[in-house]
User: Which sequence fits this backbone?
């Protein structure tokens, strides 16, 4: 029997691989958006500095540039590859799908990224050492290269949501994938929010400067840019909502808006008030306000934004054809990909995944719980933690703490197999696998056994 091209399953207790990716991703977004936004601010500030002949603005650029070099470039450059490691083990087929679409887009992104990193060093260390016109050209090239890295990544990220039309499924073309329905709105959100973040950090650096004239001038350039960025971001977010697939709309209204909306509105309000304040009273900006505000934006703005984008995509991880549990949901003739759900139903995951240990390929009374656990890892753990009370949508809790195997099996046989739940993948399993999976979940919910881990049967070989 031909196996499916599945990979080993990576599972982190309690939080799943999803949150590992989420945490690294949020740190990366905070660092990278601040850097890209700051690159544009530098270009604008430097243009003003030369036009109005105000060399002290250049000193500010140098300080801010140095601050970014130490913090956000290092953090950004570590977490960027970190994302690659995390997504490769969390969702190998998702990454594979993206690479098969975007390999040259990524190659281009790395070229721009190299320009960006060399650019920031050149910008900081050559300031005042080469003629101003050349330096200004360098700063604008750096700014455009930085923004280009964002633009290219956004095309890839928004394809993960969906291509938005049937065209890509038949052509498989990179253009159809890249210029997907939500690309421009998504780019607008990120462009606006990067200006907000870079402005807040810029004001933080500014709050450490003594020269009142410099503070006034720079704050009055930065604050309106930050405000405009915030409004752009909100407008684009509203447009973005119109470009989402049905499953995402549902997830958003039922599960996400009720949880995150208040925090995001609070972030917008607090940032707007702060930026207006900085504009009107530039001498009153303080480090002890700027630092907590930045953390507030990161925790209540960026984390929900990334979490929402990840959650809304469910049950898919990429392009509405790869489910989060790595099973292919539909045919994609343009890429020669065929749906797998029904094959899984016929032969079972234990038989079709090449990485299942031999001793678990056939379910026996002895290995039943262990096989059930492996099935849960392969089929559900990308979205659900397996432990009771775990923060990532605990699977035992989602069954209301029930230890009734029949009830759990009925859910798998019914709504899951029929694909009637918009945010969960359609999953068809043979009867013996359904029973093992149900037995494992029920076992997690049995009070006397709840803390006992499933025993691993030693290999028979
Ligand atoms: C693609 C991600 C994903 C996968 C894979 C997945 N689920 Fe879910 N599941 C969800 C989401 C999202 C929710 C609703 C979230 C919430 O309530 O916070 C959910 C909710 C549930 C619920 C609660 C009932 C409901 O309809 O809200 C149960 C029960 C459940 N899942 C069981 C399973 C089982 C069993 C598996 C594996 C066979 C599985 N899920 C695989 C995403 C997934």
Assistant:
């Amino acid at each position: 029997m031909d196996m499916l091209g599945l990979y080993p399953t990576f599972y982190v207790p309690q939080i799943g691989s999803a949150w590992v990716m989420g945490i690294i991703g949020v740190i990366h977004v905070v660092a990278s958006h601040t850097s890209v936004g700051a690159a544009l601010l530098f270009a604008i500030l430097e243009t003003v500095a030369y036009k109005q002949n105000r060399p002290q603005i250049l000193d500010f650029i140098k300080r801010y540039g140095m601050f970014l070099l130490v913090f956000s470039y290092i953090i950004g450059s570590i977490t960027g590859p970190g994302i690659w490691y995390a997504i490769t083990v969390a969702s190998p087929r998702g990454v594979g799908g993206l690479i098969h679409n975007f390999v040259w887009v990524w190659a281009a992104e790395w070229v721009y990224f190299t320009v960006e990193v060399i650019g920031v060093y050149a910008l900081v260390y050559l300031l005042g050492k080469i003629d101003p016109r050349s330096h200004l050209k360098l700063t604008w090239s750096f700014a455009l290269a930085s923004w280009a890295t964002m633009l290219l990544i956004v095309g890839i990220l928004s394809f993960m949501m969906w291509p938005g039309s049937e065209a890509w499924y038949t052509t498989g073309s990179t253009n159809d994938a890249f210029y997907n329905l939500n690309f421009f709105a998504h780019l607008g959100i990120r462009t606006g929010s990067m200006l907000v973040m870079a402005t807040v950090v810029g004001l933080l650096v500014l709050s450490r400067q003594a020269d009142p004239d410099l503070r006034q001038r720079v704050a009055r350039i930065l604050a309106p840019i930050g405000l405009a960025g915030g409004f752009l971001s909100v407008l684009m977010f509203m447009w973005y909502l119109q470009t989402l697939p049905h499953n995402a709309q549902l997830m958003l209204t039922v599960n996400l808006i009720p949880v995150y909306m208040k925090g995001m509105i609070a972030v917008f309000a607090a940032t707007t008030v702060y930026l207006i304040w900085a504009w009107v009273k530039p001498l009153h900006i303080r480090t002890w306000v700027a630092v907590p505000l930045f953390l507030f934006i990161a925790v209540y703005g960026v984390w929900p934004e990334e979490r929402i984008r990840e959650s809304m995509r469910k049950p898919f991880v990429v392009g509405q054809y790869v489910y989060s549990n790595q099973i292919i949901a539909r045919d994609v003739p343009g890429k020669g990909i065929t749906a797998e759900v029904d094959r899984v139903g016929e032969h079972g995951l234990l038989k079709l995944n090449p990485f299942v240990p031999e001793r678990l390929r056939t379910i026996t009374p002895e290995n039943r719980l262990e096989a059930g656990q492996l099935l849960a890892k392969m089929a559900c753990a990308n979205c659900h933690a397996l432990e009771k009370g775990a923060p990532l949508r605990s699977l035992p809790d989602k069954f209301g703490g029930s230890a009734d195997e029949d009830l759990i099996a009925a859910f798998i046989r019914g709504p899951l197999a029929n694909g009637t739940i918009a945010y969960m993948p359609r999953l068809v399993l043979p009867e013996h696998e359904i029973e093992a999976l149900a037995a494992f979940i029920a076992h997690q919910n049995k009070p006397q056994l709840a803390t006992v881990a499933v025993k691993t049967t030693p290999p028979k070989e």
